[in-house]
From TrEMBL:
This is Arginine decarboxylase. The keyword Mitochondrion does not apply. The keyword Lyase applies. GO terms for molecular function: carboxy-lyase activity. Its cofactor is pyridoxal 5'-phosphate. It comes from Lutispora thermophila DSM 19022. Residues 413-460 form the Orn/Lys/Arg decarboxylase C-terminal domain. It holds the Pfam family OKR_DC_1_C.
Length: 483
């Protein structure tokens, strides 16, 4: 078999051939959105169209033709003053946003549960992050929104912070009150940057949460590939005119992206915008209707709980993305990790992710009635795979101590380090990050003092089979500390 000699191609072909029902990104769902709209011819023969900047094909980093026009149209469609196409995901948009508005040594307020690219952005920019604690839903065991008062208090404590960075929606679909946060941030002369990776679809249906740019953010990065029709890794950075130095932003966008951008990816962003402009309302209407149907049926007929608008006004939640199907399996005694496994192995459905209590299924404009019904039937049926042992996973509590920062993460990275036994680590300064799921909040960052209850908590997580991302020893017997 030729594929045996081409392992990556083999792996993606096998997955495509498996016909697993994808409730994960990318939002085009194996190109299904194009078939649904009779547009399958648009992105045919991609390899023939893959090209560099020959005459007639524009340049991403100094656009004058097609790219400039496509970005202009996107800005109009997504309600921004400027839009920049990204071929290194929202990750690159987050780096560029942060670097464009700060200088080394500056303070920036970021959520404690921010995506790792936000922490990386503070490392690249040699910044001092100060953390905004999100509200935790104790039943689902996950972080939800950031309260407006949390931002106000943090700004009181750190009046010298340059900018406030918020993640909204979260991976689970919870939105913070960006409008109110924008107001207090701007009243104090600061900038508001939003990680809206999971909210590209928001501008195209009135039942969805308000988009960050419309709510007053100065910049918002969206992973178009996650919920709309563009190719994996393609994103957009939307900017509001006024407070942002656009030339500086363009400089950093060049710095964090390749000089050989894929025009096929850029074209897929253009196509994603076209589809939403022409058909957005209609295809989102269907997506919202069936996602709500799945949600309501799960809540009425199963022991599980599907996150919905009933949670608005609790745990910092201002709004909920109705298209996101986040299901807490705790009531049925099944762990999220086990639930994901059951859906994959018994029903050939692949969800986006799972944690100890929850699974997250990404529904999108590409899904149809049959896919939603298949997901619903499987979730209603999965109770019979109940395994009492999994219940142990629900009992782990977050540590009580608040991490105390000794030096900023960027500085910790350049210090001399050593590996020591975890038992002996309390009192030392960590040189690594430790992020268990749930709740996806780093309990340790590089540069923070290690406390005993944090070590106990992490050991308990490992004992229960919860993965800790960021640690160098997956078994957590050793930890990297600053010498
Ligand atoms: C909340 C959040 N922000 C940012 C990112 C990074 O986005 P991208 O994969 O487009 O670089 C992700 C990716 O999963 C994410 O979940």
């Amino acid at each position: 078999m030729i594929y045996d000699d081409i392992p990556i191609l083999k792996s993606i072909k096998e997955y495509a051939d498996s016909e697993a029902l994808p409730f994960h990104m990318p939002g085009h769902k194996r190109g299904k959105i194009f078939n649904k709209l009779g547009l399958e011819y648009l992105l045919e023969n991609l390899i023939e169209m893959d090209t560099t900047e020959v005459p007639g094909v524009d340049n991403l980093h100094s656009p004058e033709g097609a790219v400039l026009e496509a970005q202009r149209r996107a800005a109009e469609a997504f309600g921004a003053d400027y839009t920049f196409f990204l071929i290194n995901g929202t990750t690159s948009g987050i780096y560029a946003m942060i670097l464009a508005v700060t200088k080394p040594g500056d303070k920036i307020l970021i959520p404690r549960n921010a995506h790792r690219s936000v922490v990386s952005g503070t490392i690249l920019g040699k910044l001092v992050p100060e953390y905004l604690m999100p509200e935790i839903d104790p039943y689902m065991g996950i972080p939800m929104g950031i309260k407006v008062s949390t931002v106000a208090e943090a700004l009181d404590h750190h009046p010298d912070a340059k900018a406030v960075f918020i993640t909204s929606p979260t991976y689970y679909g919870a939105c913070s009150d960006i409008e109110a946060i924008a107001k207090i941030v701007h009243d104090r002369g600061k900038l508001l940057l939003v990680d809206e990776a999971h909210g590209s679809h928001f501008p195209f249906h009135p039942e969805l949460p308000i988009s960050a740019i419309k709510a007053g953010a100065d910049m918002a990065a969206q992973s178009t590939h996650k919920t709309l029709a563009s190719m994996t890794g393609s994103s957009m950075l939307h900017v509001k005119d006024g407070r942002i130095d656009i030339d500086r932003l363009k400089f950093f966008l060049q710095l964090v992206q390749t000089t050989s951008p894929s025009h096929v990816m850029l074209a897929s962003l253009d196509v994603a915008r076209y589809i939403m402009e022409k058909h957005g309302h209609m295809i989102l209407e269907e997506c919202i209707k069936y996602s709500n149907m799945v949600r309501n049926e799960i809540n009425a007929k199963s022991p599980f709980y599907c996150l919905g608008k009933d949670k608005i006004n609790s745990y910092g939640i201002h709004d909920i993305d109705s298209t996101r199907i986040t299901i807490c399996l705790k009531g049925g005694g099944i762990s999220g990790v086990k639930g994901e496994e059951i859906l994959r192995n018994k029903y050939n459905i692949q969800v986006e992710m799972s944690d100890a209590r929850n699974i997250v299924a990404i529904s999108s404009i590409a899904d149809d009635e049959e896919s939603y019904m298949r997901l619903l039937r499987a979730v209603l049926d999965m109770g019979r795979w109940h395994n009492a042992e999994d219940e142990l996973l629900h009992e782990i509590r977050l540590p009580y101590s608040t991490p105390v920062c000794s030096i900023p993460p960027y500085e910790a990275l350049y210090r001399q380090v050593e590996y020591i036994d975890v038992e002996k680590s309390p009192g030392h300064i960590s040189a690594e990050m430790a992020v268990p799921y749930p709740p996806g909040i780093p309990v340790l960052m590089p540069g923070e003092y290690i406390e005993k209850d944090i070590v106990d908590y992490l050991r308990k997580c490992i004992g229960e089979g919860i993965k800790i991302s960021g640690v160098s020893d997956p078994k957590f017997n050793k930890i990297k500390v600053i010498k």
